[in-house]
Amino acid sequence: MAKIINLEVFKRFFKSGQVGGFILLTCVVISLIIANTASKDSFANFLEIKLGFGPINYSILAWINDGLMAIFFLLVGLEIKRELIEGELSSVKSAALPVIAALGGMLVPAVIYFLFNKGATSASGWGIPMATDIAFALAIIALLGKSVPTSLKIFLAALAIVDDLGAILVIAIFYTNQIHFEYLAMAGGILILLGLMNYFGVKNLVFYLIPGIFLWYFIHHSGIHATIAGVLLAFTIPTNETDVLSPLEKLEHFLTVPVNYLIMPIFALANTNITFQKEMISGLISPLGLGIIVGLFVGKTIGVTFFSWVAVKLKWADLPTGAGWKHVLGLGMLAGIGFTMSIFIALLSFSDALHISEAKFAILTASILSGLVGFIFLKSLKSKD
After folding, report:
1. Taking Cα atoms as reference points, which of 370, 363, 279, 385 lies closest to residue 333?
2. Which of 84, 185, 308, 347 is most buried, judging by how many CB atoms fall within 10 Å of its CB?
3. Alpha helix (H) ranges present in the chain?
4. 3-state SS of 22-56?
5. Does 56 have pLDDT greater than 90?
6. 58: DSSP letter
C-alpha cells in the first residue's frame, strides 16, 4: 500500500513540475521582453521598493530571493527527507545510482569551470554549473511521453533532488561571507526546539511553521543565506513509512502547487531580466561563459553518465528498469538545464553587474542547448518497456 501511495505522490509531483515548467518558461520570456524594452527601468525600480518594518524592511527583490526562495527550499528539503525515508533514496541500493550520478554531475562541471576560470575574478562562480533545474528538466522529459521508460523519469527526479541537496550544501559552506555567531546560536536553539517537538511526537504543523519564521530571521541575520532555513525546517517536520498521511506529506502537498506555479515563476520573472547587448555574444566565449556552458552541457553529461557507468560496473547500483546507457546519456544532457538554481548561485557568486549579466546569459544559453539536444536525443530512442 505504501508503495502505491509513493507512486501517486510522485505522479502528483511530476505533473505539477511539468506544468510549472511551462509557466516558468513563460515568465522567463516575459522577463526577457521587459528587460529589452522601455519598461526595464520601471520594472527595476519596482523591484527596489521596500516592504516591511524595522529590522525586516527589505526590497521586493530581496523578499523574493531570500523570502520566497526559502519556501522553495523548504519544499526541496521536504522532498529530500521523504525520499530518504520512504522513496528512491530510502535504501543504499536504490539511492546509489541517483546519488553517485548527481555527485558526478556536480563535480565534473565544477572542475571544468575552475579550469576555465583559474586565477580570474570570475573564479568564485564555480558552483554555478553544478545545479540542475528540476522544474525545467521534468517539464522537458514529460514532453517525451512513452519515448522513455517511466523509471528514467523517476531517476531524473531523484537525481535532481540529490543535486539540490548538493547545491544547498555548497551555498551554506562556500557562499557565506561573515558569520554572526550570536544569531547562529539563536537559530541553533530554535532548531533544537523543533527537533525535540519531532522527537516527542508533536504533529501539528503550526508548532513547526511559527518557530520556522524565527529560524529564517536568525539564519538571515547570521550571515548564512536565509534559504538554508527552509531546508533545516523541513528536516524537523515529522514523517513516517506507513500509508497514513504524515505532517511532512501534508505540507509537501500544500506547497507543491504554489511553489511550482507561483514562487519559481516570480523568481524567474525578477531575475532573468537580461538586457541583451552585442558584447554578450563575446561573453559566451569568455572564461566565465565557457566555464558555464561547457560545464553545464558537457560536464553534466559526462559526469552523470561516467559516474553511473562506474557505479553499475562496480555493482553498486543497477540501471533504471527498461533503460539503457543511451537513456542515461540523454538524461545527463537534460541535467545540464541549470536555469533557476544556477542563476541563484550566480547572484551569490558575483557582486559585479557585468559578471552577473554574462553569467545569466551563459546559463540561459547552456540550459536551452541542454534541453533541446537532450530532448532530440532521447526522442530518437525507443523505450525498452
Report:
1. 370
2. 308
3. 2-35, 40-47, 60-62, 69-86, 92-117, 134-143, 150-174, 181-199, 206-222, 228-234, 247-258, 264-271, 279-283, 287-293, 300-313, 325-334, 339-349, 353-379
4. HHHHHHHHHHHHHHCCCCHHHHHHHHCCEECCHHH
5. no
6. E
Of 311, 337, 339, 327, the residue nearest 385 (C-alpha)? 327
Is the C-alpha dihedral spanning 265, 370, 80, 340 positive or negative? negative
Average pLDDT of the chain is: 86
Cβ-proximal residues to 247 (8 Å cutoff; 6+ apart), any chain: 203, 204, 205, 208, 237, 238, 239
Is residue 10 pLDDT above 60, yes or no? no
Pick 112 or 271 by higher pLDDT: 112
306-314 long-range contacts (CB < 8 A, ≥24 apart) are 306/104, 306/108, 307/100, 307/101, 307/103, 307/104, 307/105, 308/97, 308/100, 308/101, 308/104, 308/332, 310/100, 311/96, 311/97, 311/100, 311/101, 312/97
Q: pLDDT grade, residue 2 (50/70/90)?
A: very low
| DSSP secondary structure, 332-359, as one string | HHHTT--HHHHHHHHHHH---HHHHHHH
**Given the C-alpha cell 532555513, which residue does it identify?**
229
pTM exceeds cut of 0.70 = yes
Architecture in CATH of 2-175+225-379: Up-down Bundle (1.20)
Distance CA 151, CA 246 (A): 25
pLDDT at 136: 76
> The dihedral of CA 93, 97, 100, 102: what is its sign?
negative
**Contacts of residue 244, Cβ cutoff 8 Å, sequence gap at least 6:** none
Q: What is the largest CA-CA distance in the chain?
A: 60
